[in-house]
Amino acid sequence: MSFASQSFSPEIVRALTECGYEKLTPIQQQAIPHARRGHDILANAQTGTGKTAAFSLPIIQQICDKPKQRSRFNVRALILAPTRELAAQIAKNIEDYTKYVSINVAAIYGGTKMASQEKKLEQGLDILVATPGRLLEHMELNNVSLANLEFLVFDEADRMLDMGFISDIRLIMNDIRTQPQTMLFSATFSSQMNKLSNEILRKPKRISVSPENATAETVAHVVYPVDDDRKRELLSELIGKKNWQQVLVFVNYKETANELVKELKLDGIKAVLCHGDKAQSARRRALEEFKEGKARVMVATEVAARGLDIQGLPHVVNYDMPFLAEDYVHRIGRTGRAGQQGHAVSFVSREEELTLVQVEKLIRQRIRRIQLAGYEPANRDALLHKMQTKSAFKDRQGRTNNPTDQSDAERRARLRRAVLNKSKITKLKK
């Protein structure tokens, strides 16, 4: 099925052809007709399935069909995404799709100056892509108006909930006075996700292109049992012996990421960093070096699990198993995209076996285990002794990928109160 068959304008079809788009993916085949008819949508779709085009193309066409004069700070379509990387990627894709039509789009997220974003907002936007926290900051300053919002999209909605954005989402929704066509896309579903969808969607068309919480069939999964203190050696050995040229490695802690990059460089393997403490410009440079092949390895925390679009990425390594089984799905979603083959490799210590069981239950498949000679985990008695003698294990912290210090927490709390008060005042005036 071609894009021309969906009655998109010749200008949009021309841009899609230049992007290399030929046929609709399954999520696009199911979502686009419903979206074109104005229905709300609840979609279960993995990363790499073409969902950005599925929700953005119908919006673009409807804006083209009903052009309106832009007004200061006004937004016609709002797309919310959990991370900077994903917001930037969505905006870039939409810019490519709208190359030959008169539609303006901008992305706003943390890590860049408010002033430059305010200039973009001031002229009025057809499509705004934003992270919830940064959008609330601009709302407090009256830099953006959702008074005439026509379209609302939540991309990677499950990740937004995982990152604690539910209160931000409700504040944003509280400031919307219209009834926009709303689309919610998520790779995984939970009771909290179902509750949110019931709150914000009106008689949605439910779409699923794969079993819930499943991984792409194009990804081959494998597990290497290994002790924590041997993981770095194992990674270097696999990269060298198997001649892996492009490897995205996920760790749970920024400190682990920093140390691992240093160790890999000592082994002669060029590696770059991507985590929450790095400036947005530094993360962008790291990603560019990795995409261009200047760096063989990119070590990242969970902050990079969403939004990274690396064409043809062959290998994803879980150096640390994720804290949440659902995050496994998002991490390995970076490989095996667009029908290409990918490999998901996980290093699992004895302490992480329970997480592995949870992952296998979630994705409904048994992952093949490979025991590499020389890297056999220590026996159970040795593990118990290690756990009893290492106080560091007892004091192990929870997820710290995107730490929020007290001052930042207070700032966000003030923002929430300000937006909430503004909303109450607006209601009283009415």
Automatic annotation (TrEMBL):
UniProt keyword Ubl conjugation present: no
Domain Helicase ATP-binding, chain residue ranges per copy: 32-207
Cross-referenced InterPro entries: DEAD/DEAH_box_helicase_dom, DEAD/DEAH_RhlB, DEAD_box_RNA_helicase, Helicase_ATP-bd, Helicase_C-like, P-loop_NTPase, RNA-helicase_DEAD-box_CS, RNA_helicase_DEAD_Q_motif
Positions of the Helicase C-terminal domain: 234-378
GO-annotated molecular function: helicase activity
UniProt keyword terms in alphabetical order: ATP-binding, Helicase, Hydrolase, Nucleotide-binding
Span list, region Disordered: 390-411
Placement of sequence motif Q motif: 1-29
Domain DEAD-box RNA helicase Q, residue spans: 1-29
Keyword flag Zinc-finger: no
SUPFAM superfamilies, sorted: P-loop containing nucleoside triphosphate hydrolases (SSF52540)
SMART domains for the chain: DEXDc (SM00487), HELICc (SM00490)
UniProt family annotation: Belongs to the DEAD box helicase family.
Protein name: DEAD/DEAH box helicase
Origin species: Photobacterium alginatilyticum
